[in-house]
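the two lines:
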Amino acid sequence: MDRYLLIASTICFLAAVVHTAVALRAGVFHPMRFNFFAIGLGFIFQTAFLSIRGHQLGRCPITNLFEVFIFLAWSVALIYILVGSAYRLSLMGAFTAPLVLLLQGFALIAPIDTRHRLNVPVNSWLEFHASISLVAYGAFALACIAGVMYLLQERQLKTHQLHSIFYHLPPLTNLFAAITRLLWCGFALYTVGIVSGFFTGHPLPRIQVVAAILLWLLYAAILQGRHLKWLAPTRVAALSVIGFSGALALLWGITFTAELHQVP
Amino acid sequence: MNVFCIGLSHHTANVATLEQFAGNATAESIVRQACCTEALLLTTCNRVEVYAVSDKRVSTDEITSCLMAKTNRNAHNYAPPFYRYEDSKCVQHLFRVASGLDSMVVGESEILGQAKKAYESARTSGAVGPYLHRLFQRAFRVAKQVRTHTDIARGAVSVGSVAVELAQRIFGKLSECKVLVLGAGETSERTARALVSRGVTDLRVSNRSLDRARELAQMVGGQTVCFDDWAAQCREIDILLTSTSSETLLLTHDILAPMLRERLDRPLFIIDIAVPRDVDPNVNEMEGVYLYDIDSIRAVAEQSLVLRRQQIAAAEAIIADHVVEFVDSISPGSSRMSQTTEHSSLGENALRASEL
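prediction for all of em together
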């Protein structure tokens, strides 16, 4: 049953992607109506899936790589609904839907939904640490998407080659403001996530801790560079893309090593 | 009932020919002289067209004679390239005209305003009846739908509008942008006016001739900056519009680099419409600087036109649906016509009054 909900959610995101591709190809993209509705519906199905899975497990549904991917996709959709529409980043939905589709599509296809018998009792601090960190990743993902949009538009403006997509992208300064806010939002959540990790009472793998702190330092450096105006907007946009790539690598590493530890 | 359109446009006639037929007639005079039941005259710089409804066929010569009423020429001796569309072709032509598909600059919106004005003028004089009323109201609706559902009006196609559109793509709202106009020529003035019309309030003008700078500043509601001090303004402005007649480059990489270090987080949009250019092209390579000279602005305008032309098929499809629907609604055998007839039988004058 829960898997059907996930398939329904994935179909919603696929519909948003296909609609955007067709509309952009025809040059008649009107994003706010269909995309927001499709992403909203997909988000409802995601939430229902996570809720059912959480009840089945009796804990936050982030116990394996499959659930982590779905939770991350849910976080991206959540931040988009909360932040994306507020800034009216018209084409952000068009860029968000493919990322969510990729995450969910991979989770559905790859054989990563392995149910382990968890021998650790429910630890609220650990669950809080993991879930808040994943929501922070959602904010970083959207910052990355806004960064890609910024770089795309900046490139077109520099080269004087304005394609149809150019007219649907938000203004550069608005995009830059959105990147900055999303980075701050993600950074604050990630800081809370890291700090809460020290209250779990579990010894964390040193490599994970070091990698997480390095990622935190990278985002801190980006924000500091932005705040002190050392970094030009283009570099902040590029670094938000690089930062999220690092975050994804770290997430993969954490989940992979965690699963290794759980295999009997 | 016969609905037709007879006219001349930029497709078939040059300006001199169009001038021969513009301003000699009114919708009312056409109704009177050509024995039409309804008529509307649409005159713009690119077209002179008569839309009319008659019980019996009215020849093109009769309409031509009306359009030449005040001139000494005789329509029979003079054969201008008039076109004629009847019934569904006439409906389709009007929908295309109102949507900007028949315009010289595809997708321009001015024609819609001109068509509305022509309709209002004919309505006031009593030359428009229920048929043309419905036809034109539908045409305005079609034009709106075409603009909403296609990108036919997307992109700017003149120097001023390209500059404004690019500025909006970079800065969003222009109300908080600081603009420096360097050189007070005619194109600068037009572009400055376009920027002001989109919300720019902080506009500074600098020119070798301080009097001319003052004059332009006064016209666009800006302030004057001494020509020797203009370069220092690059520390704080967002948009630089330059069009001086200088023979040498006024703004180079070396001049701009130290100022950019103080404004790293804010983009600088430079519109260089001077010939020869005022700004070194290498400036475009600097971080956060977007330089557009007259060639690149023309290229953007051309790209916009290409994008618009790509939308023609989608627009034609919308129009085709409306033509079928409209013709069906007015054809005698259709159920909608029955409804209309029934409606008319309630009192045509009342209907006219309410519709008009």
